[in-house]
Amino acid sequence: MGIYYRGICRGFGAAYIPFKLKQSDKEFVSVNVATDAGASVPFSLHYHQDVEIAAIAVPLLSCKGLRISVAGADKFDTSLSFGAIKWISRLNYKINPSSTSRFRNIESDSYFGKIHIRCNVAVEAFEKNEIILKGVICSPKIDSLKRVYVTDGDSEVLENYPVYLGKPSQIKYHGFYRYESSFSLRIPKGDKTFCLVASGDDLQGSGFLSLDPAAVKYMLDSRSPAFYKSAYIDTYVHLARMRKRSLSFLRSQDVPTIQKGVKFSIIVPLFNTPVSFFWDMVNSVEEQVYENWELILVNASPNNAALSAELVRLSDSRIKVVTLTENKGIAENTNGGIEAASGDYIVFFDHDDTLDRFALYRYAEQISAHFDTDALYCDEDFLNEAGDYVDPHYKCDFNLDLLRVHNYITHLLCVRSTLVKELMLRKAFDGAQDYDFLLRLSERTHSFFHVREVLYHWRISDSSTAKSAGNKNYADEAGRRALQEHLDRCGLNASAELTDTPCFYHVSYAINDEPLVSIVIPNKDSVEVLRRCIESIEGKTSYSNYEILIIENNSVEKETFEYYDSVCAAFENVRVVTWEGPFNYSAINNYGVGMTKGEYLLFLNNDTEVIEPNWLSSMLGFCQRDDVGAVGAKLLYPDNTVQHAGVLMIYCNSENEMGGPIHVFNNIDRDDPGYMRRAVISQDLSAVTAACMMTKRSMFDQLDGFNESFEVAFNDVDYCLRVRSLDRLVVFDADALLYHYESFSRGYETGAKKARFMREQGKLRTAWADYYVNGDPYHCPMSTR
Q: Cβ of 217: how many Cβ atoms within 10 Å?
């Protein structure tokens, strides 16, 4: 026996070291791999049937090299440095490509009888400087897996890196059964090497996943959650450049004329505006494809000679200059322009930003088609100092509860003139005058239209809020006061609070009259799971006026019924009723509701656990509002990553695509804010999961409960969409925090379960086709691209 050097190569996170052997050796070969310092190294041993060559796969480590010992009828020992492996691999790829291709990634081909590790998710926990890795460990037998652990780059075992494992589930691979266990692991971000090892008692080695820096980077690039990922990648800069170049050749006569086009009055307060920024702004208006506009420039810095000289140079008759005697503050300066406006709609535009050439055209299109549109806004990006467009902000359609947390609308706000002149801006809220205006406007109309295109470019400069909200931190308190006044005007018993993030707020709703909440929990056996759920509710919940109804569903274990007796004896507010039909999640819950007394209903899975004491009161605070029909919680996997932060209906480009619904921000860290902080703030959504969902009994009765044709899947989504069809809101409550012990890497359904799932998805697509065609109004189509 001996090393077959012509086949040595490297692959993804692994090195492959083939060796020659006799046919008689195959039954007796034993292998030992260690670092040059003597630490044991995980490996897997693979045989080729057609040649008398075996291969050892080892992880790429950061130590100097390896000592390899192979014993059979013959024996050999050798040492190889990782540097030598690197250069031999490069040489073999050039002169021995057929040999190297035979062994590269051999562990993927040699699958039977071995333990394998596959990474499905890799995501960065930015604020914790960690990388979260999730996937599955696959083994040939249910008891094959003996130990799962992490080593460093020297193959030393690290005891302080816990690996979370899910329960093994049976899968079929090429007609044979194997067992998959989900895993979750966190490693520090940086240039250190780690290795995840799954060992059994097989002499042919262990499963391993090398976590060297190159492998981790690849996994982050290819296996991170897709939500709004396109907002961060470099390709956006390239695409924006191409669009800008393309539009530079566009002429107004190249696009269809909009009949009965409205007139826009664009209001721009000027205050010591840099000359170059001034002309960029003016030119972006003059180059608009839609031409029925007036630009009103309100000069609040008359002593600025350079700016005054540029104003004199303006020649377009559609541009008006209003010169103030002094700077009266942003609100009053803007009001001066509003008073001079003659257009049908007023557009608010900052003095150092720019517009896409189609901005006014898209707005005019919408107004022409829908004359009842009162306000419009669009997506935006940032114009950096290098002149590139970066970091697009893809917004949702009108979202009242999101607006009550943050002014997500910002630019390019366009409002019917009669409403603007009635409301005006208020000087008392300078710094947050636009937020105060929007909140007051939302009290007059919900006829907001979101143009799903990036049509506004917010300049990043040293004085701009786009570069740092802290540059105008006085706006934070002004915004909180504006929000509190809004809540008061709306008759809501709520308080507006500052947060650690500038210009993001938190609303706390007080509970009125402490109504009874009925918590409905279906259960089949699973005593310890149910016990954990009930004890967490009873032991942690701060709100006291609730009852718990357990719906017994075809349990067979004696311990289950013994627990029912004990829990009802221990807690006066716990009852058990029995469902005697076949399993149908919707029917079971509908039956249970008929046995409850509460004014509010809380549907809860038995595999949940309360984390925050105020979870129930927080959800009830939202649900008590007249305009709210359902409220969902934020659910975490036991590894403290997100299981549920709302449900997204996926836009389909064509009828050939399947589409969602899916959970948004799934698998990110519990404290990761997500895109535009939407994973950590309460907001309106299309749907939430009924693993923890509250609704009014009156709403539930009005909708005739859950649709029982959805036996297992999508009944909660269908319920929420029916709530929305009644013009009621579905709220994601980010403060209601629970663990959900659902596996964090569930496999695909098979057989009859898969067929049922597909049937129920078909029902959902039939009932709610508009969501698949037009997209989710609370998440833009770019969210999953």
A: 12
* Structural contact between residues 384 and 765, judged by C-beta atoms closer than 8 angstroms: no
CA-CA distances (angstroms) from residue 755 to 414, 719, 751, 761, 762?
A: 48, 22, 6, 10, 11
User: For residue 221, how many other CB atoms are within 10 A of its CB?
Assistant: 11
pLDDT at 249: 82
Say whether the peptide bond before residue 412 is cis (omega within 30 degrees of 0). yes
Return the closest-CA partner of residue 595 out of 553, 554, 550: 550
Q: Residue 543: what are its φ and ψ, rounded to 5°?
A: -75, 130
The β-bridge relationship of strands 574-579 and 600-604 is unpaired
Angle at 230 between CA 225 and CA 234, to 5 degrees: 120
Q: How far apart are CA 629 and CA 206, in angstroms?
A: 52
CA distance linking residue 542 with residue 527, whole number of Å? 24
Alpha helices (runs of H) in 304-383, residue ranges in sequence order: 305-312, 330-340, 359-369
Q: Under 8 Å CB-to-CB from 691, ≥6 apart: which residues?
A: 603, 604, 605, 608, 635, 644, 716, 740, 742
Residues 6+ away with beta carbon under 8 Å from 534: 521, 548, 550, 567, 571, 574
Closest to 644 in 3D by CA, of 659, 666, 672? 666
* CA atoms of 649 and 694, how far apart (whole Å): 20
638 — alpha (psi -120 to 50), left (phi > 0) or beta?
Answer: alpha
Max CA separation in the chain (angstroms): 100
In this prediction the pTM is: 0.91
- What distance in Å separates the CA atoms of residue 219 and residue 144, rounded to the nearest whole number? 27
How far apart (Å, rounded) are the C-alpha atoms in residues 351 and 349? 7
Distance CA 578, CA 573 (A): 17
Q: Please, which pLDDT band fits residue 635 given cuts at 50, 70 and 90?
A: very high
Please state at what angle helix 751-767 crosses helix 715-725, rounded to 10 degrees.
10
pLDDT band at 652 (very low <50, low <70, confident <90, very high): confident
575, β-bridge pairs: 549
How many whole angstroms from its chain centre is CA 86? 39
What is the rounded CA–CA span in Å between residue 719 and residue 501? Answer: 34
pLDDT of residue 498: 95
- pLDDT tens digits along 464-492: 555 544 445 788 999 999 999 999 999 99
Confidence of residue 743 (pLDDT cuts 50, 70, 90): low
H or E segment to which residue 182 belongs? strand 176-188
Start-end of H helices in 44-199: 82-95, 97-103, 106-109
Question: Taking the CA of residue 773 as centre, how many other CA atoms within 13 Å lie in the half-sphere pointing to its CB?
Answer: 6
For 538-593, how does the pLDDT look when each residue is reduced to its tens digit (9 = 90+)?
999 999 999 999 999 999 999 999 999 999 999 999 999 999 989 999 999 999 99
End-to-end alpha carbon distance in the chain: 52
The two tokens of residue 563 are 């627990």
Lowest mean pLDDT among 53-57, 127-131, 653-657, 724-728: 653-657
Tokens of 727: 């013009």
Q: Using CA atoms, how far apart are residues 403 and 526, in angstroms rounded to an integer?
A: 42
Lowest mean pLDDT among 251-260, 323-332, 627-636: 251-260
Cis check for the bond before 661: say yes or no (omega within 30 of 0).
yes
Among 86, 215, 105, 210, CA closest to 153 = 210
Q: Are 695 and 583 in contact (CB under 8 A)?
A: no
Residue identified by tokens 């007023």 is: 346
Q: How far is CA 522 from CA 9, 548, 602, 689, in A?
A: 54, 11, 12, 15
Q: What is the mean pLDDT of residues 495-503?
A: 94
* H/E segment holding residue 219: helix 213-223
